């Protein structure tokens, strides 16, 4: 398929490269910051623009991968009625695209994309939704060429998938960050935690996290918990996080 | 070296097998529950007992790997003075072993051990400490045969390592568990999150978690945060966890 990307951030970069690798023609990259559009376009060897009026009308699918709160505004400024237009956001309804076309939909990848890390798209779950059956068929066809895990999800489900991803990824990464901060104060290196971090994630690839839970809160070991709270007595924010998560674990195994 | 294990739980199982594989003679397993001792002893093809009076005096090193709060009590009942005795706990001082011998120390593996998962010990960081230089040398020699990452750490450092492991492993796993609970309510499967969980851990194997942070809180995207809080309006405990971690991320990037 002929595809135009609006946006050139981490999601757009990963997804456009995956689509090109799957044999699609990524024709053009739009970004209101021309340098960002250029960077991705050079990677893809395609054209680029920072002008909405210069966006090609030759493509079949337009992928909008910009910040949540500008998706609707951007869609309003597009003149591509009759084309398939999708966004890639977890928490935005597909109707945000209705000003651009009647053939709108969603192509939501449930993954964290980071600058400089190109992921294997095949394993990334893609959740799709569309305004009509024909559009859904086109989005699914496209999605199936880049991922082996394509499922339909309505807006309610997609919002929950996004929220659960925040818990299992964004909050998790912040706990890694808090651990590193804590270790630094005692001249200890985060390297020591890396095998533990990896094993914790590997473990739940095959088992249920509820069964895999370990640690003082799981054993309701109040002696160790009291020692940890003592160590955190000068760090009230972290002490509060420790308390709320420990209580949650203890309750969950009562 | 000739080694006796007191305890036959997840840590003892993983560590004794690693020591045997490294060429040491694991002579005996003690557990007050004979069935548990027997299970590990059969794996190792060694003897076992549930009687402290039957513990062999022929070993050079005794590894105590039992619940934190019974380590000291167990050490008091041992008649192995002159032998090297270590425990494997993060939050217990080595002096808890002083009733058993003068040659006490610690061999603390920074990893999560789970029933049925045998890990490659080579990559597991081991933190050691001992009452005297000779004991330290013996513990280090033993540790180096099973892991390529052996470091000294005093009690203060070991407690912080344990605390940081609680954040980066136990709390992280609980967030996986909370995500699964949330998905279940909407007939969604945790399978959808597994690639994300793995990528989040893989990412910080090479990069700093602070740089790798993504998500609405990192962008201070108050619209999405408000939507998520709305979704959690009937789940006060999870709403509180969401709020405290989101606030912590927002503050950390201000």
From TrEMBL, chains A, B:
Protein name as it appears in the record: DUF2520 domain-containing protein
One Pfam family recorded for the sequence: DUF2520
Boundaries of every Pyrroline-5-carboxylate reductase catalytic N-terminal domain copy: 2-88
Regions crossing the membrane: none
Matching InterPro entries: 6-PGluconate_DH-like_C_sf, DUF2520, NAD(P)-bd_dom_sf, P5C_Rdtase_cat_N, TM1727-like_C_sf
Domain DUF2520: 124-248
């Amino acid at each position: 398929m002929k595809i135009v990307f609006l946006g050139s951030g981490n999601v757009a970069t990963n997804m456009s490269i995956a689509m090109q690798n799957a044999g699609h023609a990524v024709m053009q990259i739009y970004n209101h910051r021309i340098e960002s559009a250029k960077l991705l376009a050079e990677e893809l060897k395609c054209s680029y623009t920072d002008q909405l009026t210069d966006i090609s009308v030759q493509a079949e699918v337009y992928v909008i991968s910009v910040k949540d709160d500008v998706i609707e505004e951007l869609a309003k400024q597009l003149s591509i009625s009759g084309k398939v237009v999708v966004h890639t956001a977890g928490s935005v309804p597909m109707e945000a695209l209705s000003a651009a076309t009647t053939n709108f939909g969603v192509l939501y990848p449930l993954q964290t994309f980071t600058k400089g890390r190109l992921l294997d798209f095949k394993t990334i779950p893609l959740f799709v939704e569309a305004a009509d059956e024909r559009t859904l068929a086109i989005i699914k066809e496209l999605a199936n060429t880049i991922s082996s895990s394509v499922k339909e999800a309505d807006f309610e489900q997609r919002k929950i998938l996004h929220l659960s991803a925040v818990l299992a990824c964004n909050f998790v990464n912040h706990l890694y960050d808090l651990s590193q901060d804590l270790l630094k104060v005692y001249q200890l290196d985060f390297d020591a935690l890396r095998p533990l971090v990896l094993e914790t994630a590997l473990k739940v690839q095959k088992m249920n996290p509820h069964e895999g839970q370990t640690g003082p809160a799981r054993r309701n070991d109040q002696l160790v918990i009291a020692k940890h709270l003592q160590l955190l007595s000068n760090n009230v924010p972290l002490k509060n996080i420790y308390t709320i998560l420990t209580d949650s674990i203890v309750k969950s195994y009562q």
